[in-house]
């Protein structure tokens, strides 16, 4: 049969905002016009990229919900694309290709939560593509019944997780999953995959429910998330036309791919095991296959297509570049916070549309075999007749031919009877399933039960455990009759007991079993209320449904997986308020804070599971979820952007690591793989380099201290003791530090050099020293002595980080680090830096075996005296010129010359303004003298005028005296300011402590009362000290002014 070249058709669909995005006041970054889709960069709206696809579906807005819950266009001309529209464009084409005898494939690709499952499966009211195809298939079979035409439909459903194939319709599970084999005729196929004959859409619907239930159970048992697995549904349609002696067979493959962000999560920064996870292999290989096929499509020769590198790509070989007509639907998240993932999805889809397949009409392999057997039988019969005509007595040969003929006939009958046999087996299964469903519905109307809640909404509400009258044990064991068997991480053989007596249900944990109800750990038995939330073991989540009499028309949908985790986080003392400022300028929740909170509740159950796996595998690691920069601020005192980190501690050695969220998620995947191998093979043999629980020791950031630089702007020496505060605002150590203004040769400036007006520094050279003397009470060294500390900091816009020497095994380390810095020409920008910024000093903890941090001086320019230059324009331009192409030299030199000219111009303008200011002062003085003379003349005292005029030599003396008064007063002002700034440094420290002062998570009511009292005292002390500082300054200034007035009549 000739092949038809056919490009893969690609559709994109954008969903509405979800609750999280609405709460964060997200902006839509997607626009669509006809078949074009444009994405805007939220950081730079002018940066936009446009893509063209076969279909572009706008499902973000312009819709309403009908009375029966269907989402439909809001107006007749609305551009909203509902489920029906998507099916008509994509699903009907797939079904038509199948009727013609072509293989057809539909791939759903996109970020987790972008709407893949909704488009593919949908819900009861808003039917997705897969159920719509199945329903329409049997509708057409019913409408086109013909005695000369038979239809055979079979259904299979599998899941690929961690490179293992799981048959979702089989009750028995093969260790390590099913094997993928290759056949010359069939290509790649799954050996032993159950394919169930179906006679109606209702049967397929029940099979999908059965597969979803198996997928949920597997997800719970292996603590795996459905977003990390691929689901493949195959519907095989065979059309037998007896009249034409023709049989056509086609396979419809419906593939729901894992979340596309899994390709990126493993590429976590700095993770040595970033390529190690098999969870990520299938999607990565699929991307490589699509890229290779796109290169082939544009004419590139000798391109290797890596189909064999993963299980998924083996099974999709015919769908990608092979014998299939293929459609991909790429689902998009519209929110600005998903920009990177959405752009990645669009680029992926653009590559896919270049792929060309070669589809042919398929003849059934079994029918082909029947034809071959019948042809062989005809030849055998002809041969037998010839033997009889020739009168030969070849009885042995005749007997052999008749046996072969008989075997062929039996094989033909077996092939034809096989379908009927499978159909009968399926009917018996239908009867059993129907009885089970009827029994379940009857029990739902009679007994309370617990209902599973899954991270994937499609898998929630699938598993029900009924609590009948009496006492029921819950756990792994299934040996007794009154047992509710639940599997999952941290579930014990006897985990808890349910008691259903007198219309009340109670739950009681067994021994040390972990049971959480409504966010609170359960230590003793408690009575359950309708819609209570239960967490068993590490993270097996269930919703308790009470007796039928307790049930109302409640909205159970709000009690989703995120609700469980949010409730647990709040109960453990973590909520939005703990993250600081939770409201933005428009009064809504701060998007960045909300994003951190959602990240926290997403990672929190993963941390619990990692701790459980570490315990069961005897790894000795403890994982703790933390918020980086929770109580830290930048050099201007503004809160730093918060992010989720995981602190890892070895229980025996007390070694510490801090992993980013991305790195931890990647490691969690690898831990699951290791745990799965341990459960299947009961072995933990793994090289240390490949062990996801192990990492080389590294330096740990312990905290930061802030030293405000304002005193340097007035050339005042600052002697400080500042606290190092960790992420949560707790004190880690005390640091003694001096900031010393000095001359170029390092001579410390005295009180006579103190400035009243910092602008006097403009255009001048300014030197200062940072002298880090000693640390006190370092908690890092108090816990374990075999540790060290180092301190690092950077100054102004200089990119270089300066480190002190490392000090080991001393709680009060003597550092004695002194560095002198020089500003060759003080600019207004540097002056602003001194007046508004703090020097941020980082405290680093070192552990045995880690590499000390060193300051490389290669990129540092120093003066002849040895001062580090932090504003040398010529040096920075020279360095950048050396790094760039030599062709840019003239351009950079021109820019430098222009900057120098502008600087000279500004200096000239400044000098002119100074002269003009001096002239105005002189005019003002003359005017004042003239007014005094006129007032005296109006008094009529001629003698005083003459006397005054006869003593001109006294005026210069008076002027000199007033100048000396001013110099003396300036020095007094400088001393008063110095005292004020030193006292204000203490006030700033108290303010920082107040900001970080929070109640303990374990505090009860009494503890909170004590916290309130302590907070009140701190506020009172802060207010008194602030008032004292200002009052002292006022008194000093008033005294100086008074003395000036006493010394001079003008003052």
TrEMBL record:
<keyword id="KW-0175">Coiled coil</keyword>
<dbReference type="InterPro" id="IPR022140">
    <property type="entry name" value="Kinesin-like_KIF1-typ"/>
</dbReference>
<feature type="region of interest" description="Disordered">
    <location>
        <begin position="920"/>
        <end position="964"/>
    </location>
</feature>
<dbReference type="Pfam" id="PF12423">
    <property type="entry name" value="KIF1B"/>
</dbReference>
<feature type="binding site">
    <location>
        <begin position="110"/>
        <end position="117"/>
    </location>
    <ligand>
        <name>ATP</name>
    </ligand>
</feature>
<keyword id="KW-0067">ATP-binding</keyword>
<feature type="domain" description="Kinesin motor">
    <location>
        <begin position="7"/>
        <end position="355"/>
    </location>
</feature>
<protein>
    <submittedName>
        <fullName>Kinesin-like protein KIF28P</fullName>
    </submittedName>
</protein>
<dbReference type="InterPro" id="IPR027417">
    <property type="entry name" value="P-loop_NTPase"/>
</dbReference>
<dbReference type="InterPro" id="IPR001752">
    <property type="entry name" value="Kinesin_motor_dom"/>
</dbReference>
<dbReference type="InterPro" id="IPR036961">
    <property type="entry name" value="Kinesin_motor_dom_sf"/>
</dbReference>
<comment type="similarity">
    <text>Belongs to the TRAFAC class myosin-kinesin ATPase superfamily. Kinesin family.</text>
</comment>
<dbReference type="Pfam" id="PF00225">
    <property type="entry name" value="Kinesin"/>
</dbReference>
<keyword id="KW-0505">Motor protein</keyword>
<dbReference type="InterPro" id="IPR008984">
    <property type="entry name" value="SMAD_FHA_dom_sf"/>
</dbReference>
<keyword id="KW-0547">Nucleotide-binding</keyword>
């Amino acid at each position: 049969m000739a092949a038809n070249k056919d490009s893969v058709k690609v559709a994109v669909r954008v969903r509405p905002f979800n609750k999280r995005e609405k709460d964060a006041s997200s902006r839509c970054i997607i626009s669509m016009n006809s078949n074009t889709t444009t994405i805007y960069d939220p950081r730079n709206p002018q940066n936009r990229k446009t893509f063209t696809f076969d279909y572009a579906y706008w499902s973000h807005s312009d819709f309403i919900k009908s009375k029966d819950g269907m989402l439909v266009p809001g107006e007749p001309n609305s551009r909203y694309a509902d489920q029906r529209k998507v099916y008509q464009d994509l699903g009907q084409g797939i079904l038509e290709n199948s009727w013609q005898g072509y293989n057809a494939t539909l791939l759903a690709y996109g970020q987790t939560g972008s709407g893949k499952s909704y488009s593919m499966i949908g819900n009861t009211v808003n039917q997705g593509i897969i159920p719509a195809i199945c329903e329409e298939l049997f509708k057409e079979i019913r409408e086109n019944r013909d005695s000369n035409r038979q239809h055979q439909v079979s259904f299979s459903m599998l899941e690929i997780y961690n490179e293992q194939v799981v048959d979702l319709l089989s009750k028995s599970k093969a260790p390590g999953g099913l094997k993928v084999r290759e056949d010359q005729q069939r290509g790649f196929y799954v050996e032993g995959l159950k394919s169930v004959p179906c006679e109606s859409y209702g049967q397929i619907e029940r099979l999908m429910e059965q597969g979803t239930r198996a997928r949920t159970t597997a997800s719970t048992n292996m603590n795996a998330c459905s977003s990390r697995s691929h689901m493949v549904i195959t519907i095989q349609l065979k059309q037998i036309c007896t009249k034409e002696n023709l049989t056509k067979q086609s396979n419809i493959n419906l593939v729901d791919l894992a979340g596309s962000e899994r390709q990126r999560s493993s590429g976590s920064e700095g993770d040595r095991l970033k390529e190690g996870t098999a969870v990520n292999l299938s999607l990565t290989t699929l991307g490589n296959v699509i890229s290779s096929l796109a290169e082939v499509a544009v004419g590139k020769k000798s391109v290797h297509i890596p189909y064999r590198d993963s299980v998924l790509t083996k099974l999709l070989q015919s769908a990608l570049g092979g014998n299939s007509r293929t459609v991909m639907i790429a689902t998009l998240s519209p929110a600005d916070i998903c920009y990177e993932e959405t752009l990645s999805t669009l680029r992926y889809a653009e590559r896919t549309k270049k792929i060309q397949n070669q589809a042919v009409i398929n003849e059934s392999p079994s029918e082909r075999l029947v034809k071959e057997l019948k042809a062989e039988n005809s030849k055998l019969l002809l041969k037998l007749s010839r033997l009889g005509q020739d009168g030969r007595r070849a009885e042995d040969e005749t007997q052999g031919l008749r046996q072969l003929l008989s075997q062929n006939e039996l094989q033909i009958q077996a092939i034809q009877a096989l379908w009927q046999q499978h159909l009968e087996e399926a009917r018996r299964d239908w009867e059993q399933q129907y009885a089970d469903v009827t029994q379940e519905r009857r029990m739902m109307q009679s007994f309370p039960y617990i209902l599973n809640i899954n991270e994937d909404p499609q898998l929630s509400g699938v598993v029900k455990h009924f609590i009948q009258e009496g006492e029921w044990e819950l756990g792994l064991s299934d040996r007794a009759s009154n047992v509710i068997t639940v599997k999952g991480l941290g579930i014990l053989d006897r985990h808890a007991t349910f008691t259903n007596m007198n219309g009340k249900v109670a739950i009681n944990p067994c021994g040390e079993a972990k049971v959480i109800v409504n966010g609170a750990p359960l230590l003793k038995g408690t009575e359950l209320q309708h819609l209570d939330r239960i967490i068993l073991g590490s993270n097996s989540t269930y919703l308790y449904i009470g007796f039928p009499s307790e049930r109302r028309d409640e909205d159970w949908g709000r009690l989703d997986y995120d609700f469980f985790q949010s409730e647990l986080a709040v109960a453990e003392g973590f909520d939005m308020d703990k993250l600081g400022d939770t409201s933005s300028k428009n009064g809504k929740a701060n998007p960045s804070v909300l994003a951190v909170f959602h990240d926290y509740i997403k990672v929190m159950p993963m941390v619990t599971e990692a701790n459980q796996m570490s315990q069961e595998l005897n790894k000795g690691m403890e994982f703790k979820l933390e918020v980086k920069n929770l109580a830290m601020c930048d050099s201007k005192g503004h809160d730093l952007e918060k992010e989720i980190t995981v602190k890892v501690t070895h229980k025996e050695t007390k070694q510490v690591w801090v992993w980013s969220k991305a790195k931890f998620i990647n490691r969690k995947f690898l831990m699951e793989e290791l745990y799965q191998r341990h459960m299947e093979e009961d072995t933990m043999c793994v090289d240390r380099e490949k062990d996801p629980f192990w990492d080389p020791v590294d330096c740990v950031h312990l905290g930061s201290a802030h030293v405000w630089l304002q005193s340097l702007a007035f050339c005042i020496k600052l002697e400080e003791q500042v606290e190092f505060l960790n992420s949560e605002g707790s004190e880690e150590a005390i640091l003694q530090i001096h900031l010393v203004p000095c001359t170029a040769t390092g001579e410390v400036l005295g009180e006579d050099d103190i400035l009243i007006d910092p602008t006097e520094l403009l255009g001048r050279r300014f030197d200062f020293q940072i002298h880090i003397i000693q640390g006190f009470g370092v908690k890092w060294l108090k816990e374990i002595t075999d540790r060290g500390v180092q301190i690092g900091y950077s100054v102004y816009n200089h990119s270089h980080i300066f480190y002190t020497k490392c000090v080991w095994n001393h709680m009060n380390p003597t550092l004695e680090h002194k560095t002198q810095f020089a500003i060759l020409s003080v600019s207004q920008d540097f002056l602003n830096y001194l007046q508004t910024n703090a020097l941020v000093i980082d405290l680093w903890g070192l552990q045995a075996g880690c590499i000390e941090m060193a300051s490389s001086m290669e990129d540092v320019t120093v003066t002849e005296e040895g001062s580090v230059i932090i504003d040398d324009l010529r040096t920075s331009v020279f360095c950048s010129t050396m790094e760039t192409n030599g062709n840019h030299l003239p351009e950079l030199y021109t820019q430098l010359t222009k900057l120098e000219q502008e600087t000279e111009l500004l200096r000239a303008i400044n000098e002119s303004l100074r002269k003009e200011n001096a002239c105005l002062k002189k005019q003002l003085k003359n005017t004042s003298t003239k007014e005094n003379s006129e007032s005296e003349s109006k008094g009529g005292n001629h003698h005083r005028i003459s006397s005054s005029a006869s003593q001109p030599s006294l005026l210069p003396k008076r002027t000199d005296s007033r100048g000396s008064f001013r110099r003396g007063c300036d020095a007094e002002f400088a001393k008063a300011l110095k005292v004020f700034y030193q006292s204000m440094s203490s006030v700033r420290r108290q303010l920082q402590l107040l900001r970080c002062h929070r109640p303990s998570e374990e505090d009860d009511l009494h503890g909170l009362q004590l916290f309130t009292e302590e907070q009140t005292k701190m506020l009172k002390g802060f207010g008194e000290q602030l008032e004292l500082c200002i009052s002292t300054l006022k008194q000093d200034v008033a005294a100086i002014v008074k003395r000036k007035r006493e010394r001079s009549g003008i003052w």
